[in-house]
Amino acid sequence: MSEPVIHRYETREALAEGLAAGVAAVLAGAVATEGEARLAVSGGSTPKRFFERLAAAKIDWRNVTITLVDERWVPEDNERSNAAMLRRHLLAGPAAAARFVPFYEPSTMPEEVFDTLNDRFHPIGRRFDAVILGMGGDGHTASWFPHAPGLAECLDPATHDTIAIVHPLGMDEPRVTLTLPPVVDARFLALHIEGEEKLATLEAAKTGGPVADMPVRAVLGAARTEPLAVFWAP
Ligand SMILES: O=C1O[C@H](COP(=O)(O)O)[C@@H](O)[C@H](O)[C@H]1O
Known about the structure:
This protein has 234 residues and is of the alpha/beta class. The chain has a single domain (5-233), classed as Rossmann fold, CATH 3.40.50. Helix content is 32%, strand content 19%. Helix 1 crosses helix 2. The radius of gyration is 16 Å and the shape is globular. The ligand O=C1O[C@H](COP(=O)(O)O)[C@@H](O)[C@H](O)[C@H]1O binds next to loops.
């Protein structure tokens, strides 16, 4: 397990500014050298401020592809949709010119459209210029929930699938998520967390133990040239 580098900010605003500046530099660099850039971001509530700062970055968004790290299996008119949150906070202003690749397809269960989604994500999933993860208080990241049916498929380092389906215990909604390889193969990999409680969760994950108890350990334990960058503010 390589030690993550923790970037501590005094405020959530300063964190959003700092993370957005870093991600914008990575994307601009990829556009300049390769003609295009690929970014995967998390959903939930934490990234909103960061999205709004990033959306204003002066880069050639027409050559940037953005997708989610994971999605709740709900249509975009549902308030729990990560895609809807991303459209509101990131695909606004200059960043509206980016190409967005969503997970959700109308169907009752994601299993019905797994092949379509896997084919959709395969070309962009290897390899991302930047992946920004979030984390829940239970140690889940992406939609890798502790002991969830589907977790083993998510975390298989040898899988050729870019996405996996998860059925988190105690939740009605299925999830669709990137698998471990496209996440840990990202050029720039960051974990964006806020609050003392999440810092304590990260510290608990770092002490070691079963990955299925705290799936964020799969990221902490991945062999990478660059260490995981943690962006934290109280
Ligand atoms: O459900 C999810 O939760 C995590 C953490 O969300 P937050 O609201 O605590 O920031 C998020 O990273 C993930 O993308 C999302 O689907």
